Amino acid sequence: MAIKAKVYYDDDADLKALEGKTIGVIGYGSQGHAHALNLTDSGCKVMVGLYKGSKSWPKAEKAGLRVGEVADAAKEADILMMTIPDERQGQVYADHIAPHLRPGQTLMFAHGFNIHYKEVVPPPYVDVSMIAPKAPGHRLRELYSEGVGVPALVAIYQDASSNAKAVALAYGKGLGCTKAGVLETTFKEETETDLFGEQTVLCGGVTSLIKAAFETLVDAGYQPEIAYFECLHEVKLIVDLIYQGGLSYMRYSVSDTAEYGDYTRGGRIVDDHVRESMKKILTEIQDGTFARQWIAENREGRTNFDAMRKKDAEHPVEVVGKELREMMSFLSKPT
Question: Is 233 a catalytic residue?
Answer without folding.
Answer: no
